[in-house]
């Protein structure tokens, strides 16, 4: 499979695979004031970033939507997340409104360990949320917090995936790594989860969780790219990566628009692994289509 070396080459990439487009499970849309603050934090290489990280796609919301549609991204998330209490409920209202006006959006919600979290998460699920973003690295909270136990159970019962940044990249805190989230899975083994960035840099630990829990998925976000700030992927895990991908449990994620390289580079990096066209089809579309029940 030819590697797409520019954004203009992306449609030819998925067409050559015989796909009707691609699905990206790790895309950020959020209120513009919050998005601008996130971009400023990246510009300043803040403590949770720890390295120079230029943003490639700083356009308006409408321009970013048009860009994804032009690439052939047929479905994508709108990952928004709180960094403190009192934000999540309002973010869920915004992401619900965004999904209502953007048909390609997989409606997204989020939460934080705080009073009322169970109630507003239930409202978000009732309003149609199909994936819930949980950012342990930025939020700096313990996923085992007692306020969240009922929430994890609610997600497990509903079959709604939690897309969790639980790895310690780019900067660790006391609640990242496979241990804390692994304890959540032990309490809620039926929870559907998508581990962002494949759990970088603790790849081995999160692959072990995927082995232990059949509803754990991994997203590709930033892994294998030339921007190796999170960690180098160990060659020893490539056979397991292939098997999980063919089983529909490795999903394309990019971190668009907050990436320091062209969108195509993520796809180029996946194609360069030479794991086969069937693997690319499963990762770039079919696994996510099955998980979210997309046509």
Automatic annotation (TrEMBL):
GO annotation, biological process: secondary metabolic process
PANTHER family linked: 2-AMINO-3-CARBOXYLMUCONATE-6-SEMIALDEHYDE DECARBOXYLASE (PTHR21240), ISO-OROTATE DECARBOXYLASE (EUROFUNG) (PTHR21240:SF28)
Q: Which InterPro entries does the record match to this protein?
A: ACMSD, Amidohydro-rel, Metal_Hydrolase
Organism whose genome encodes this protein: Actinomadura meyerae
> What Gene Ontology cellular-component terms does the record carry?
cytoplasm
Under CDD domains, the record lists: metallo-dependent_hydrolases
Pfam families tied to this protein:
Amidohydro_2 (PF04909)
Q: What is the lineage of its organism?
A: Bacteria, Bacillati, Actinomycetota, Actinomycetes, Streptosporangiales
Span of domain Amidohydrolase-related = 23-294
Q: What's this protein's name?
A: Amidohydrolase-related domain-containing protein
> Is DNA-binding included in the keywords of this UniProt record?
no
UniProt GO molecular function: carboxy-lyase activity; hydrolase activity
Keyword list (alphabetical) reads: Lyase
Identify the domain of life.
Bacteria
Has the keyword Lyase been applied to this entry? yes
User: Which residue positions does the secretion signal occupy?
Assistant: none
